[in-house]
Design goal:
- About 25% of the residues lie in helices and about 30% in strands.
- The protein is of the alpha+beta class and about 190 residues long.
- It has one domain: Alpha-Beta Complex (Peptide Deformylase).
- The strands form three sheets. It has a five-stranded antiparallel β-sheet, with helices on both faces. A two-stranded parallel ribbon has the order 1-9.
- It starts with a strand and ends with a strand.
């Protein structure tokens, strides 16, 4: 089932997200719905708060990037990078922060260069409740950090300079009021 993606301005995107356990109701269905929603919106990552649920869960699928010339050296890694992260915790960030043009399904039609560390180590449970500790670098670390920020109540626009934020204010206000044209289901600020 395709879920509405909550837009910039929705309080659910700023709340603290809680850890869950194996007994979380219909978790597998939620994960399936999140992947379906992400694919419908042509995204490569989606966090639970973006579909209105304040839990520490996100999904990614970097497969679409495998066709990009820029990533030919990591094509195989990207093709095998469909993952579920439950109760994740980034335990290490290292390397020189590098700029990359990011966008977000909750903030349509806004793309900006964001600096993030190049390498991360993350602990999490997968969809089978197997505990994992993995290190990522390259664009996979970027995707994971972006989604991880969502479960921390942080949006990529928070990482912009005060000037950039000021320049985007009108556009962000329009998004929060539903004045944006997207090809996927969205929920706009109802307050």
């Amino acid at each position: 089932m395709i879920l509405p993606i909550y837009a910039y301005g929705e309080p659910v995107l700023r709340r603290k997200n809680v850890e869950i356990d194996k007994n979380y109701p219909e978790l597998n269905k939620l994960i399936e719905n999140m992947f379906e929603t992400m694919y419908k919106a042509h995204g490569i990552g989606l966090a639970a708060p973006q579909v209105g649920i304040n839990i520490r869960l996100f999904v990614i699928d970097a497969t679409p990037l495998a066709e990009d010339e820029e990533y030919v050296s990591i094509k195989e890694e990207l093709e095998n990078c469909k993952k579920v992260f439950i109760n994740p915790k980034i335990t290490k960030r290292k390397g020189e922060p590098w700029k990359f043009n990011e966008g977000c399904l909750s903030i349509p039609d806004v793309r900006e260069d964001i600096k993030r560390p190049e390498t991360i180590t993350i602990e999490y449970y997968n969809e089978n409740w197997n505990k994992k500790t993995e290190t990522y670098h390259d664009v996979r670390a970027r995707i994971i950090q972006h989604e991880y920020d969502h479960i921390e109540g942080i949006l990529f626009t928070d990482l912009l300079s005060p000037l950039k934020k000021k320049l985007l204010k009108g556009k962000l206000t329009d998004i929060s009021k539903g004045k944006v044209d997207v090809e996927y289901k969205m929920k706009f600020n109802s307050h």
